[in-house]
Amino acid sequence: MCKVSKKRFGAIVAGITMAATLVSSANAAIVYSVDFDSATSDGTIQGVTGGTATIATTSNRTTIETSPTFGPEGNRFLRTISPVNNAQNPQAVQVANLAPSAGNSLSVLTTQIGGQRVMKGGFDFFLRSDIAVNGTTTSVNTLRVIDAGSSSGNGARLIVNSDSGSQDTALQVDVITSGGALKVRAPEAFTIAANTLYHVAVLYTNDGAAGNTTGHLFIVEGNTAIDTSDLTSSNPALRGTTSINFTNEASSFSVPNFNFGKVNTTSNERLQDFDAFRLYDATPSTFAAITAVPEPTVVALAGVGLAMLALRRRPNA
Length: 317
Hints:
This protein is mainly β. It is built from two helices and 20 strands. It has helices at residues 6-27, 296-313; strands spanning 30-39, 45-49, 51-55, 62-65, 77-82, 94-100, 110-113, 116-119, 121-129, 144-149, 156-163, 169-177, 180-185, 198-206, 212-221, 226-227, 238-245, 258-262, 270-280, 286-287.
């Protein structure tokens, strides 16, 4: 009988768990995800489902790293180092360009119900900043993770950023259209601590033909899952909630590709890390934590183990 070490057995279990997690995520309506597993010499990012992604700058200041630890040990993540914005630094914006395939773009966040434009689904990602970010000491561009689309005509624009002076928040998520703007922000007193991992999630819900959309902003420290079953103030991860009724029923996201990372510069160099961007076309029960990805041999062993289990359970002819 073949003996399996405790270490290898644990790895096999991890592989089976990962497979189960992927199935669960698929049921949770993830249409596009980027895990930043690695990048080829031409900048193509590996670990993408539902489209493609590339490192968008020729500068070596946008890289994929494993240290310092970001979630599970050995997990890979996107590192951006944005230099001071001046004429000597033309490569100031450090991002990955995300390109969902047709049907998997930001447009999945909007729909019409009874002729009324509403929003649904959501997205999440993980971040770490080299400095503390709050509503009183940092600028509008200290964090600017996404700035996608245009609000002109029937378009919609999505902005995820920090602000100080006008909105005073460590993080806000704005959907701007010609028919109104949905702005959800963390409280002024909330601080994103320096060199600390955070899970950020945004969820959109609606009341159907009545046309009211509510945006929910979750921020929780650590590689921590976020439960969406409680959308009240008793949920400690829920940092902000705002509702709107869009007056332009045609408003939608028309730009398929968008940048993700450090999309604007500041007066000081910034180092920021990101991982696991996921886009949902419906409400997930949970925005999951980052899971460790086992080696390919472990996944293969897990598959063999599952196949053997199926054979053992097959009834005799």
